[in-house]
Amino acid sequence: MKGGASFNEAEIVIDLYPVTQELEFEEIHPKAYKRGKKATGKREEDLKDLPTEVVEHTMSEEKLAQAFPNGRYKRLPDEVYKRLEYQPAGFKVTEHHVAVYAAEGNDANESVIVRADRPADLLRNSVTTASLMAAVFNYKFVNSQPIHRMVQEFERQDVHIPTQNVCRWVIECSNRYLKRIYDRLKEKLFEYHVVHADETPVEVRKDGRPAGSKSYMWVYRSGALESNPFVLYDY
User: Fold this and answer.
1) Element (H or E) spanning 81, and its range?
2) Is the pTM of this model over 0.70?
3) Which residues, in sequence order, are CB contacts of 70 under 8 Å at separation 6+?
4) CA atoms within 13 A on the CB side of 25
């Protein structure tokens, strides 16, 4: 236990909230979420006080020529979606405008719709971004602060994200992006001439084993003389 929360806070919270829905922007800023019918235009009203950066995604002339060889097309209203970026001093919204083009197909009743390329999301259909997750990981695992305290800090900036959503983001991003780095470092560890290790008994109440079973947190560290030393934790 440290800072009033266990080291596996994310897993504990997800156990309490096994079904967690992704958030809409009107649930985040600037007012606490209230259940009820969504008002028309409410998302724009709720986000108007956050600084917004518009990012354009258009198609090059070469790609347009490939998509519409006869050159007969028109640009439709952009496909617009928003993602929440985090900066140390606060938040800003990045509003992505994806260019959408249309032309008549060979059949008079058909039309061809082509969209410009858009960057891949960190998590599918999630408002979270790399900058926001970097802040979460830094707060939780570098500064050793519980996630629910960070959520309270966000609320003081009029950004309302439930703790269970942040915990789910932590687990999914860890499994998707960080685990492959961890696995590679573990392979690298066995190549070193000197490895330091330590074990600490921990009490784990819910992991499918009988009460009183021995559990350990192992810490491994490469030798101090290595050019790029690192530390790995293993439960």
Assistant:
1) strand 74-87
2) no
3) 103
4) 21
CA–CA distance, 43 with 25 (Å, rounded to integer):
6
Tokens representing 230? Answer: 């690192």
**Residue type for position 88:** P
Q: How far apart are CA 190 and CA 129, in angstroms?
A: 34
User: Which of 16, 18, 5 lies closest to 149 in space, CA to CA?
Assistant: 5
Q: Which two tokens stand for residue 206?
A: 């819910």
The pair phi, psi for residue 53, each rounded to 5°, is: -110, 125
Tell me which residues of the chain have a pLDDT lower than 50: 1-4, 32-35
pLDDT reported for residue 4: 47
Which residue type, as a one-letter code, is found at position 124?
R
**What six digits make up the tokens of 174?**
């860890």
Q: Across the strands, what pairs with 104?
A: 111
- The maximal CA–CA distance of the chain, rounded, in angstroms, is 74
Q: Give CA–CA dist 98/141, Å, rounded.
A: 35
pLDDT at 34: 47
pLDDT score, position 108: 67
